[in-house]
Amino acid sequence: MNKEKILLELDFKAVRSSGAGGQNVNKVSSKVVLSFDLENSLSLSDEEKEMLKQKLSSKLTQNNVLILNCDEDRSQLKNKAIVIKRFLTIIEKGLHKPKIRRPTKATRASKEKRLNAKKVMSKLKQNRKRPEF
After folding, report:
1. What pLDDT is stored for residue 28 in this prediction?
2. Would you give the distance in Å from CA 54 to the centre of its chain?
3. Is 43 within 8 Å of 2 (Cβ atoms)?
4. Secondary structure (3-state) at 17
5. Rounded-to-integer distance, Cα 3 and Cα 85, Å
6. CA dist., res. 124 & res. 74, Å (int)
7. Can you say how many angstroms the Cα of residue 68 is from the centroid of all Cα atoms in its chain?
8. What are the φ/ψ torsions at residue 76 (nearest 5 degrees)?
9. How many Cα atoms occupy the beta-carbon half-sphere of 70 within 13 Å?
10. Are 66 and 89 in contact (CB under 8 A)?
């Protein structure tokens, strides 16, 4: 995955934020909407695209477009930086391959330790019984 190539494929749109803020909300377009077309991306291989489609299926539109919004700050530049950072973390997590688990057997020492603990507990419980005369 080449971050520089992917960043060139991003589309940004500045939109007016919703919510409180008075006149500033009505005048300034500080909300940033990022869209990334996964299907037509040239910087990702077909294998990477399939992985992202599976892992990000809930975040993709029907046309396989990832859309992210950010209106946390009053500055458009800061919102753009935040949304780019968020986008890169989502893509990195989507492309992460989990480590393959190799099953292992219990060691002889651990088996013996478990059996000894069972014997100790058994003797302790035997000693709780009422003695026979």
Report:
1. 75
2. 13
3. yes
4. coil
5. 11
6. 69
7. 15
8. -65, -40
9. 20
10. no
**For 17-48, what is each residue's pLDDT tens digit?**
776 666 666 677 888 999 999 888 888 889 99
pLDDT at residue 17 in the model: 76
Give the closest residue to 16 by CA, choosing from 78, 77, 74.
74
> Which residues face 33 on adjacent strands?
13, 69
pLDDT at residue 22 in the model: 66
Structural domains of the chain in order of their starting residue, each with its CATH number: 3-95 (3.30.160.20)
Q: Name the residue with higher pLDDT: 11 or 28.
A: 11
Alpha-carbon distance of 75 to 97, in angstroms, equals: 36
Alpha-carbon Rg of the chain, whole angstroms?
A: 29
The rounded distance, in Å, linking the Cα atoms of 43 and 29 is 30
The tokens for 58 are: 């809930």
Q: Write down the residue that tokens 């589309």 correspond to.
A: 11
In the chain, the amino acid numbered 3 is K
CA 56 to each of CA 36, 90, 92: distance values in angstroms, whole numbers, following the listed order: 12, 8, 11
